[in-house]
Amino acid sequence: MLKALRSSSLQQARFTTGASYLQSSSRHGTKLTSSFNGVLRSVLADKNPKLFQRIFFCSDSSDGSGSVPESALEETESKSAAAIVPTSIKKPDDFLTVLALPLPHRPLFPGFYMPIYVKDPKLLAALVESRKRQAPYAGAFLVKDDPVSEATGSDTEKNIYALKGKDLLNRLHEVGTLAQITSIQGEQVVLIGHRRLRITEMVSEDPLTVQVDHIKDLPYSKDDDVIKATSFEVIATLRDVLKTSSLWRDHAQTYTQHMGDFNYPRLADFGAAISGSNKVQCQQVLEELDVYKRLRLSLELLKKEMEIHRIQESIAKAIEEKISTEQRRYLLNEQYKAIKKELGLETDDKTALTDKFRDRIEPNKDKIPPHVLQVIEEEMKKLQLLEASSSEFNVTRNYLDWLTALPWGNYSDENFNVVQAQQILDEDHYGLTDVKERILEFIAVGKLRGTSQGKIICLSGPPGVGKTSIGRSIARALNRKFYRFSVGGLSDVAEIKGHRRTYIGAMPGKMVQCLKSVGTANPLVLIDEIDKLGRGHAGDPASAMLELLDPEQNANFLDHYLDVPIDLSKVLFVCTANVVETIPNPLLDRMEIIPIAGYITDEKMHIARDYLEKTTRDACGIKPQQVEVTEAALLSLIENYCREAGVRNLQKQIEKIYRKIALQLVRQGAQNEPESVGESSETSSDKQIEGATESNKSNDEPISDTTTEEAEVVNINDSATLADEASALKDTEATITIDKVWVNEDNLADYVGKPVFHAERMYDQTPLGVVMGLAWTAMGGSTLYIETTTIEQGDGKAALNLTGQLGDVMKESAQIAHTVARAILAGKDKENNFFANSKLHLHVPAGATPKDGPSAGCTMITSMLSLAMNKNVKRDLAMTGEVTLTGRVLPIGGVKEKTIAARRSGVKTIIFPLANKRDFDELAPNVKEGLDVHFVDDYNQIYDLAFDHTQQK
């Protein structure tokens, strides 16, 4: 039983130990006389000399309660209103049936306070009720570890409170402590231990109530030397332990004030209680009734505590020695930065640079490859060690700038909607079915896989067919960033692979610049004019492109400047070329070729009307109602001015037309707002008149709908204002009109000049020795005539002259044609000795243009036979193909381009080699429409087609 006396000379003392507090008073006249208390007093008094000037009292665990005279109580009550007045309750020995309180963490030793939280409402209510019934005692028993579960401390408490009755009893240790309930605040119950208990049997289940026996220590001899020696060793160890922690000194102070003099059992309990050992070892001390064995166990625990403390000190000392230099450097750097900040000198220093680089990589630190992070960290450490004035500092800074600016692992969200991509492609381009289908296939594969891999696509075709603009439309359809760079004439490998950092002014290659510019790792990169790569003293760029444009290698593309692998596997490369024959074969093998042949007249009409005209009109600031270009004018423009495969020249001619129209409209004042005569500024500010009339008609004459537009006047609500406006307009002699400009076939020459080409390329009657052939150039397909005439005739004068800037292949084709023509003529007409007695001259027009290629053989043979047999070739016939000495026709290339060129020239009959039939069948129906195409594998078939139904002159 706890009793407290408070006199005028004594004050109440509160001691906080760990998570609990202690309030106790001292007993009058009590003195520390034993050697144990003398040693502890010497230790504690060194730290707190005033501690032992007052002596506090608490109930003794041996006799159960302390008696206080009534006069002392009355004196205390009179002197202090805050004194604790106890009530007469039973002694602890009287409690043989107690409530069982489970302790989840540590056992409670006699003389120590412990706060616990009681979550069970029934148990908490029973504790409150027993306290009201003058029975503030309960049994505190440590919970055994569950061998099955590995739950944490909080989970163990929840599991314990869920147990009831025998299940809970089986989880409790038999030996516990009789605990006095000092206070109950909410769920917190503060206990103080008194004596040891042993559970004998269970009385009730909920709340668990048990019957206990009060157990005492086994008899021992105070004069036993072994016990004395052990106790002194415990005291010596305690002295060392108490010097290491103020928390343990507080424990010692509280215990001595509460329990009074130390003896051997109390010394053992105290040592075990303040040690940091686990609960099982402490429970062993609590259950041990042999005083000597208990002292031995406590000594072991204290020795372990000291050893742990020594290890802790050695670890702390080692760590302190390790970081002391870094801490000193850090403190000096912080002071240095503070001084520089006060002086305004902190800008552009190494720390600011490092912070900038770290801020760049911090959002994407998880996406950056580990080897790149390692390089960045090493370079930043190197930057801190370099002087700002050294050249190496600038090299490292630029290198870090590039490394941290790249979009490591950042990908833009791609569009996998095929319908939306189809709409975007159709908005930007007319036709080009092959290209659009290939892009939609790419999107479909990406949607099924959930991700897309980069590909290398090469768009080949003549200039002006829209290869570059197709790349931009593909990027928009895929929702990717777009980057374009041209490699035409590029002769430096460093532009592709980057420079070494050892060179002055070194920079990374185009791909690294691209990734930094677009900010994503999956852009669409358009490599323009890849067929025009140069080759100089700085290496071969075409060979350097092999790694970049290889789907199997560009996942680890190595730039010479960065010197770390970069993943380009998600990049979609689109290359453009006019002629794939000039691309090196190893580079061509890495690409997927998509040919774009050119446009026929119908396609050019759609492109001009739906795309070019609208874009040019907006660029010139002309309204649609101000200009009308007729279909006949556009057709004449295409056929007589713009016969090339592409539409770039067509766009130039349309721009020329609209520029002249813009000048005409400005001269007429069509874009100026009308100003009424005699009109005040208040009534004319919100007024605008738009109209169109013929220039020779007056304002009062009716306006034709076919030539003019109705004037549109802004409505004004005020009727009086309208009347004033009408009178003002009538008084005005000069009326502003807008003429609608018509561009038709008759006045087209006024805008674009004289026709470049004749409207009809073919002869009305093909002359002798003239045959139309089909050629394939970098500008697309084209038609050209091959002409043969006789220079001189006579016995044995057989010869052949060639002109027209022919290449070696065409010269050989002409020689073969001359031989085959003689053989065929001999077979058709044995008496005809034309070739044996004639000196021939074969010419290919447009002599300023070099010409070469293996596809003019059959045309040359037909031209020579026409002259020799004096027969004209059909006027609407064109042919292409190479002929061997045996008369077999070999396949050629550019079937689509040549077919389009034939349609542009009005050819109705075309002769192709039989091996090219598959290429022709793949053409679009609008390209093949209206053509009579024959496929031959021997020249005799060409002879029948060319000279059929012809009359001999």
TrEMBL record:
Residues 670-683 have a biased composition (Polar residues). ATP binds at G461, P462, P463, G464, V465, G466, K467, T468. This is Lon protease homolog, mitochondrial. Residues 670-710 are annotated as: Disordered. Residues 292-321 form a coiled coil. It catalyses: Hydrolysis of proteins in presence of ATP. Pfam families: AAA, Lon_C, Lon_lid, LON_substr_bdg. Keywords: ATP-binding, Coiled coil, DNA-binding, Hydrolase, Mitochondrion, Nucleotide-binding, Protease, Serine protease. Residues 98-306 form the Lon N-terminal domain. ATP-dependent serine protease that mediates the selective degradation of misfolded, unassembled or oxidatively damaged polypeptides as well as certain short-lived regulatory proteins in the mitochondrial matrix. May also have a chaperone function in the assembly of inner membrane protein complexes. Participates in the regulation of mitochondrial gene expression and in the maintenance of the integrity of the mitochondrial genome. Binds to mitochondrial DNA in a site-specific manner. GO terms for cellular component: mitochondrial matrix. Its EC number is 3.4.21.53. It comes from Lactuca virosa. InterPro entries: AAA+_ATPase, ATPase_AAA_core, Lon_bac/euk-typ, Lon_lid, Lon_proteolytic, Lon_Prtase, Lon_prtase_N, Lon_prtase_N_sf. It is found in: Mitochondrion matrix. Residues 765-949 form the Lon proteolytic domain. Belongs to the peptidase S16 family. The active site is at S855, K898. Homohexamer or homoheptamer. Organized in a ring with a central cavity. GO terms for biological process: cellular response to oxidative stress; chaperone-mediated protein complex assembly; mitochondrion organization; oxidation-dependent protein catabolic process; protein quality control for misfolded or incompletely synthesized proteins. GO terms for molecular function: ATP binding; ATP hydrolysis activity; ATP-dependent peptidase activity; sequence-specific DNA binding; serine-type endopeptidase activity; single-stranded DNA binding.
